[in-house]
Amino acid sequence: MTSPLRLxxxxxxxxxxxxxxxxDTWFAGEGKVLNLAxxxxxxxxxxxxxNKRGEERRVVVHAENYGETxxxxxxxxxxDRHPLLQFAVAGLPGPKDLFLxxxxxxxxxxxxxxxxxxxxxxxxxxxxNLLGPKTCSWAEIARLAHEVESDRLxxxxxxxxxxxxxxxxxxxxxxxxxxASRVRAVRPDEWTWNELDRRLCLxxxxxxxxxxAMHDRVIAGLEAGGPQLRHIRKLTEIAQQARDLLAAGELxxxxxxxxxxHECQRALSAGLISKKADAVADIARRFKASGWKVNxxxxxxxxxxxxxxxxxxxxxxxxxxxxxxxxxxxxxxVALSPAGLQAWxxx
Length: 347
What we know:
about 35% helix, alpha+beta
């Protein structure tokens, strides 16, 4: 087997517990979000070979989670096979004299509402970035990744997921106007970081989240200046409050902010909190968890973040009971990720 001329690796963390989510969107106008970057991270590998035949379809993509491989022309991205990946490659296609073999792997199921597609896009662009004559900053990578989803694919995409994947850690994101952002890292003391990390639980609700007509109705109501707008404004206040509590090491107050955000999402539209999410919250409450919140926009499927209580035994019992639920519900182990996007070349 021919050895590659260049070998590049990249990884980017996932995003959970987006307090203030829904406010980082074009229909909110302005907003504030506090979120957490977590590992395990999305992984990307690029092997670059000489394109001796001058092939136009000079990129081969291995989407490992789907067991699929396809070839593409980065000058002509298509929507037939994994358009997110095709349009991301087209954003930073690398020199034409290189033939690229790209492998991608996500540690969690697709559609889990943890910013997975954004992390994939950020990691892929971060790896491709090293092939070019001029490198982009991580902030520019986040912006390019957001453009892939919002502009090129025409999807409803807030700005927070790409920022979390690029920056890592705990991010407080202020959006003065869409899609501009001002990002500040929240750096709690060592005790708070360790205790938060110990108590975090990511719960997969058994099936992928799928955008629905319900979401479209919420967005339409917001566009029209309907009553949902006051809940959006409330979400920005909760995000600010949660940031201050976390910075001060007040984890119990931070947990209450999670629940307040969770119920504010329910007020936006009852369907944003599913029956399965309510069942998980009931278990969390019974085992004295400090907080819980659906990740992302909410709705059927997806995932939740739980902040367990101080008692380790109760937290472990909670995890066992959640794992015993039917319908594929399970806890996925995660850890706070101080690092965001990382990309490097093997010399």
